[in-house]
Amino acid sequence: MTEVWPGQPFPLGATWDGGGTNFSLFSEHAEAVELCLFNEAGEESRVEMTQRRALNWHCYLPGIGPGQRYGFRVHGPYAPQQGLRFNPHKLLIDPYAKAIEGVVDWTHDANVLPYVPDGTEEADLELDDEDDAPAVPKSVVIDDAFFWEGDRHPNIPFADTVIYEVHVKGFTMRHPEVREDLRGTYAGLASDQAVAYLVDLGVTAVELLPIHHISDEAFLYERGLRNYWGYSTIGYFAPHSEYAATGRRGEQVREFKGMVKALHRAGIEVILDVVYNHTAEGNHLGPMLSFKGVDNSAYYRLIPEEPRHYMDFTGTGNSLNPIDPSVLRLIMDSLRYWVVECHVDGFRFDLAAALAREFFDVDRLSAFFDTIHQDPVLSQVKLIAEPWDVGPGGYQVGNFPILWSEWNGKYRDEVRDWWRGEATSGSFAQRLSGSADLYKADGRDPFASINFVTAHDGFTLRDLVSYDHKHNEPNLEDNQDGTDDNRSWNCGAEGESDDPQIRDLRARQQRNFLTTLLVSQGTPMLLGVDERGRTQDGNNNAWCQDNELSWYAWSEAPEARALRDFTRRLIRLRREHPVLRRQTFLRGEELKESGLPDVWWFRPDGRKMTRRDWQDGEHVLGVFINGH
Fold it and tell me: What is the pLDDT of residue 363?
């Protein structure tokens, strides 16, 4: 019989102290909570958590330590029309779990839906009493000790930063020099070969696609696909176990920390792409894996007049509810955990506009921003917003507050337009000079603009100059998914071509884009292995392609090596010339009695641009930047 002590309400989650483990779970509306422990044979024993303080259910179990697998069963009313979906027949992942073993087993007969599926829109109204524990991943108690060997944040100024957006698995899955058993893992990204490549290229930060624990969607399993990008979070404190080479019982935490330490040792920062706007549990017909069963009406934004259904600002079926203090606390606790315990250097917030919605409208004075700005830890790391969501008024490029940088979607669009002859000199010059029209008025600096031409969402650089149209047939949605607004130009032929003139033109266009990106004021972001001409065969939405279509190809073809070397020279040029990474905006005024302005724009004939030239002039632009 397991001995049970009262324990403490904080910290939330499972905390091992060397003699036992304290368990604490927030649930405002629950009537009872059971802690479920699993032995090596998968046999379950339950402990009733009778203590409740500050809305947290808690207990302490002496003798329970690292490696112990556990979950929760939460009791309360199953009343979807009131926004309540408690179902103790469903095992729940701890929202504060530091490690999660494995993924949902969609091959198992156990029903992870909280209702009886009958194929109708009303199915969720009838509770399902089938135990789903065999199919649900287990939370794991960990020992969070780690020998950091004096590791420190590189603290590279934003103005000196060159970001490299990369997928942990995709980067090394096909890397010929990385040990086979390490490919596609945190350890693979930490390998000498991978780190040496990043250092040689000259990037200063990796921006990792989501590494919070991921849950695939059921419909993907049915199609034989997987969620590769990872924007389907179910554990905000746990590194995804499938990216670990060393194990899934807490070993993934040490492996992740080891990766951060290896990258820091090389002077490279680690930025995490985080998804606090929605979870993997979908809409009212989605699975019950964690938050939905712990306290649905607290964790999610529900439609006030119809709380059976979810507000959806994300296009995924649900939206997390940062208005609730306990949910906002979870987000802040998670962010601090990754900075303090795992030493990450910053975050890119997916669909960040959703987090800024107080009640409905996007609000730059929201509690989310206020809390971060007042936090002594989080206010000092790199904060990057994807400044839009899919809700009304969700496009917020240029509207985030001080301390925030933004993925500059206008930069991407207008630079792409310029190099296909569709943008004016005026709009192109705005983007080249740091987008002062977006960021100067509220006191931000040029590096508030994260400049990018390509990212994971859309064409790769090679595909941008090879395809006029998306080719997403492998996603099995009849090519209906993914944007049609690609602003691409195939240079005369759709897809791969043997025509030497087309190939030369495409190579030049890639160099044009890379040069523009790396001489623009602001912070440049490269898409991983674009510098080697990586292709996805025209797929601009490869989110479900966990295969060689998405995994990075390490071509040694002459044109791949030439493009890599060209990119490396551009990054070195940027590093050696501070005038290309200014910390203040250009003004067109004389600089330090040099007799010359800080910037001068020219026509092809060498004369200064006129007002008419900016709108109707030739599609050629010269610029002098004063480095005095």
Answer: 63
Q: From residue 278, how far is each of 63, 165, 298, 317, 551 by CA, in Å?
A: 36, 22, 13, 8, 26
Q: Which residue type occupies 466?
A: S
Catalytic hit among 101, 207, 269, 386: 386
User: What pLDDT was estimated at residue 364?
Assistant: 59
Residue 160, CB half-sphere, CA atoms under 13 Å: how many? 11
Buried b (16+ CB within 10 A) or exposed e, 425-443: bbbbbbbbbbbbebbbeee
Q: How confident is the model at residue 360 (pLDDT cuts 50, 70, 90)?
A: low
pLDDT, residue 362, reads: 61
* pLDDT top residue among 570 and 616: 570
The catalytically annotated residue of 350, 414, 463, 531 is 350
* Whole-angstrom distance, CA of residue 125 vs CA of residue 284: 9
242 is catalytic: no
Asked if 386 is an active-site residue, the reply is yes
- pLDDT tens figures, 504-532: 999 999 999 999 999 999 999 999 999 99
Which run of H or E residues covers position 252? helix 251-265
Assess contact for 98 and 44: CB atoms under 8 A: no
